[in-house]
Amino acid sequence: MALSALGFAYWSAWGWVDGWMFYGVTTLNNIKTHQALGAANNSIGATATYSFGLEALFTFIILVIGTFLIYKWLSKKTYEELSQLIIVAIAGIAVVYVSNSIVNTMKVNWGRFRPYEIKEIVSSTKGTFTNCWHLNGATGHQSFPSGHTIAAAAALFLPFFADRKNLKGQKILAYSGLIFTLLMMAARVRIGAHFLSDTTMSLIIAALVTFVATKAIGYSFIEEDSLN
């Protein structure tokens, strides 16, 4: 089971590293060719190539460091605390899966053009602005809602990994997760990859799914009420 878990962790970390490198390479390429930074989201960045070996090495380093830090963290936990963390981890996986599934399904069916797409090809009447409540169908364009924002909003679940008696830790993780999500929203709008309504909808979806999950496991973002 331990080896299987490590293998799954390596595969998951590889996915993160692959995404980082993909967006890093495509963003640098967009800067070099004077294209919109947000173009890294679409097929224009699909031709990006980078070192397979470097990707594998980065993944290994991250996994080793991450495993060591997590081991140091969990080694001090009691059986009760570990049981609580298992419940939180399962709920966290469900939150990420459900919220991402909702956003990805909506992306396909809304078929909304991105801001930079409208700006670049509006002269040919191919890029047409539509309101966020308008479903365009599967056009191949996926601005609404924001995938990056829903990914960043997973940080909203971090407070539940803090000990239920550690109010300071819960507050730090709660505010840090919210600030990180808001910064991601601002960045996606700033580079022309999304409209504000795209990022706002993702935040709403993440907040609702997280809220439902927290009620299911019986925890609060900050457990002040239970300690008064």
Automatic annotation (TrEMBL):
<dbReference type="InterPro" id="IPR036938">
    <property type="entry name" value="PAP2/HPO_sf"/>
</dbReference>
<keyword id="KW-1133">Transmembrane helix</keyword>
<feature type="domain" description="Phosphatidic acid phosphatase type 2/haloperoxidase">
    <location>
        <begin position="85"/>
        <end position="214"/>
    </location>
</feature>
<protein>
    <submittedName>
        <fullName>Phosphatase PAP2 family protein</fullName>
    </submittedName>
</protein>
<feature type="transmembrane region" description="Helical">
    <location>
        <begin position="50"/>
        <end position="70"/>
    </location>
</feature>
<feature type="transmembrane region" description="Helical">
    <location>
        <begin position="82"/>
        <end position="103"/>
    </location>
</feature>
<dbReference type="Pfam" id="PF01569">
    <property type="entry name" value="PAP2"/>
</dbReference>
<dbReference type="InterPro" id="IPR000326">
    <property type="entry name" value="PAP2/HPO"/>
</dbReference>
<feature type="transmembrane region" description="Helical">
    <location>
        <begin position="203"/>
        <end position="222"/>
    </location>
</feature>
<keyword id="KW-0472">Membrane</keyword>
<keyword id="KW-0812">Transmembrane</keyword>
<feature type="transmembrane region" description="Helical">
    <location>
        <begin position="173"/>
        <end position="191"/>
    </location>
</feature>
